[in-house]
Amino acid sequence: MTRILLAEDDENLGPLLQAYLVAKSYEVDLFVNGQAAVDGFHASHYDLCILDVMMPLRDGFSVAQEIRTQNKTIPIIFLTAKSLKTDVVEGFKVGADDYVTKPFNMEELLFRIDAVLRRTKMDVNAMRVAVYKLGSFTFDVFKQTLQRDGNVYKLTTKESELLRLLCDHANQILERNYALKTIWDDDNYFNARSMDVYITKLRKYLKEDPSVEIINVHGKGFRLVVPQQENA
Q1: Beta-carbon neighbour count of residue 127 at 10 Å?
Q2: How many angstroms separate the CA atoms of 205 and 199, rounded?
Q3: 61 and 53 in contact (C-beta within 8 Å)?
Q4: Can you point out the beta strands (E) in 72-200?
């Protein structure tokens, strides 16, 4: 059974959301402030986190940052009453996989949970070796690691998915809309901003090797420039 950490301080919404997800066959632990959510995460194992942005003691962004220091890949969905674009972008910067703006339909949240889990859980039986050589870097898709000169960088799920798409289109144009619909299921404004954030993160990793570069192709998308690409 999938275990969900739910951090929501609203005394009405929290229990209601917990009961709804339990009825949908999820196991859900409810925490009513940010510090309790952090303590709960450290004390147990979860498959997904749902975090309200505005909470007592610690806000959702702070909680997500703490979670990311321990687990780079666990999916995180933000619940936010804010509509400011900067808040959504900030959520993606600290490692969110998705967000839902209040008030929301329970079925919409359930769809987003299912979509995130579907993207991040791998079918072990279908797993295959997938290692890309990017200049002096080695990118292992399933370990979600980027390695160079003995240094190993652990990528988030989104970073890994995006880098794999770029690798599959190495030295070719990866169209923005294709990438957005493949990874985020929707090419809306907020997802596009999120992708730009992850492109920036990948560039920071890859700048150690001048022969590897992600360039913008105006009006179309991105191109991963590599001297050669090998995959095994």
Answers
A1: 10
A2: 10
A3: yes
A4: 76-80, 98-101, 131-134, 137-140, 145-148, 151-154, 173-175
| 126-231 has the same fold as 3-120 | no
Domain 126-231: give its CATH architecture.
Answer: Orthogonal Bundle (1.10)
> What's the residue count for the chain?
232
> How would you write the pLDDT of the chain (232 residues) with one tens digit per residue?
799 999 999 999 999 999 999 999 999 999 999 999 999 999 998 999 999 999 999 999 999 999 998 888 889 999 987 666 677 778 888 888 888 888 888 988 998 898 888 776 644 334 444 789 999 999 998 889 999 998 999 999 899 999 999 998 889 889 998 899 888 877 888 889 999 999 999 999 999 999 999 999 998 999 999 986 444 4
Domain boundaries, the chain: 3-120, 126-231
CATH architecture of 3-120: 3-Layer(aba) Sandwich (3.40)
Report the distance separating Cα 95 and Cα 83, nearest Å. 19
